[in-house]
Amino acid sequence: MNKKKDLLAAGLLLLIAIALIAGIPTIKQRTAGIIGPKFMPILVVIFLLILAAIIGIPAILSKGEESVQEKTPEEKDHYTIIDLVFDRYATITVWVVLIGYALLMKPLGFIPSSILLIFLLCILLSPKSERHYVRFAVLAVFSSFLIYFVFVKLFLLLLPKGIMAGIL
Amino acid sequence: MLELLSVGFSTAFTPRNLIVIVFGVFVGIIFGCIPGLSTNGCIALCMPITYSMTMQQGICMMMGIYIGGTSGGLISAILLNIPGTPAAMATTFDGHPMARNGQAGKALGTGVVFSFLGGVVSMIALMFIAPFLASITLKFSAVEYFAATVFSICMIAGLSGGSLAKGLASGMIGIAVSLVGTTPVEYLPRFTFGYYQLNEGFAMTSVIIGCFAIPEVLDAIKNKNNTTKADLYQCSIKGFGFSPGEFVHELKNFAISAVIGTGIGILPGIGGSTASPLAYTAVKYTSKEPEKFGTGIMSGVVASETANNAVVGGALIPMLTLGIPGDTVTALIMSAMTLYGLNCGPLLFTNTPEALYIILAALFVANIIMIIMELGGIRFFAKLLTIPKYYLFPIVVVLCGVGAYCTNHRTFDVLCLIAFGFVGYVMRMAGLPFAPMIIGYVLGSMIETYLRRGLMIYDDNFLAFFSRPIADGFFAAALLVVILTIVSQRRKLSK
Prior knowledge:
Oligomer: heterodimer
Number of strands of chain A: 0
Structural class of chain B: mainly alpha
Largest sheet of chain B: 2 strands, antiparallel
Radius of gyration of chain B: 22 Å
Strand order of the largest sheet of chain B: 1-2
Largest sheet of chain A: none
Shape of chain B: globular
Number of helices of chain B: 21
Structural class of chain A: mainly alpha
Strand content of chain A: under 5%
Helix content of chain A: 55-70%
Order of helices and strands of chain A: HHHHHH
Order of helices and strands of chain B: HHHHHHHHEEHHHHHHHHHHHHH
């Protein structure tokens, strides 16, 4: 049994159950009987709480495996900003980059925001020794334009033009 | 039947539909052969492309991706010893040793040809079993449908992960997500929290792509410094890679594996990832030389590849006849079909019978294209395996964004995609399997609708559900799955 995983699973189930409980009073009930639009959410909340208990309680009661802190191969005293942003805290950076992409897609446009996203993800995904910034930039520009034209011109879908509205 | 079949084939063979199938198979093979990319993700990504297509073109594309994605996994399984899809896991047992022994071409040829044949057998099964089952399911009421959906979720929850509780928890998360939007009976907004964008619920592409693709990217970031590279074996195929005598010798193994694959496909929840090791084991124990399995023999590849492609037709049977998807891929195909007004279930066979035959024909044509493409373009697909993930994944993420945005043309869905990416990431860290969540999400509104309709029929008396023999059969089967899973987990723990 992996204590940490089980506790996380139980926590997630509890969180969803709480969100549903918070939303249940806002549901309008038009039918008189118990079987209305609130019935299924209540049933789901009950199951979520039971499953959270089944997964979480044994994890709380068990001594569990001692979590072994994995040491990174190269612990350094000083980090540059690039080290911190793209390596040490890469998992946090990636969320910031993804949320930024979603928020910038409309005002900036699909192509500029995608160029930024691809370039930054290339850096985040590549090991330090294999970072070729020029190649990443070329790939970002080329693939963003290609994706835009394939989807807009070939598949006739709409993508935000943003600041490039006058050019495209 | 013959008339409808000819309609299906004449549709599949029109130039535009052929191009769409070729594109689907090509993209499917790419997503299937590159470890980390999946057929599910490919279908979800390509769903927005189908919005601008006709119903026939949409079906052709989905079937092309399904066939390409299912068979594509064998390329990396044989050449890299890393299965491109979970269904190709058993192909590594003998496929990679064959490559190590200098028989990469023979292993690939065997895999491709028997993938094709497995697919054809399952299509024939689909053609004859689906209309027969549909005539039975036409008599089903809401109670039987409710029981069948409960059985499906129990089956998927029990078999997709290590723990039954976690499988059920994942399914329940999917049902919870499906509750957001408009209620199925009264059509009232529920859990929208004032956001009009949620009136129709979360966009399917955002939920599925988010849960599948974003956690893969995070995994790749975590493991980016793990630079140990697997050896990629060079390959070239002459003809099919094997002699006619060897082909005849493998026919018995092929027959066993095709039956297992199709049978497993029909059961909800257990797809190619179960069928191929099961067929491999069955072929091994019926062989006169079981000790040779694992050393690089043709029979191992035949068993695995026949079974995982025979699953395709089988998995479409419950989707088409009951409207209950057998796995994540069929769940996505079912959703895409809904966009064209094709509601899966027995009425599909009476209202739009041509749809089934277009599916059959598209599957057959896709299989032929798959065999040509994989045999002819094997060097190209092998080359793709050498492209580093840091070039591929950023483009896949942008395609995910396009997929989410194009569903409703709003960035709200892109934000939902990222939110579900986070949910998927937490689920992965917590050891919760994805498949039950997706099936729970797809079946959530169906379960609610059937349960409430059933309760209306019986004046809110749930116990009356057990007075119907077919529903009892499904409930008993669900209970059996739960008991068997608990017993097998206890055994594993005691060991």
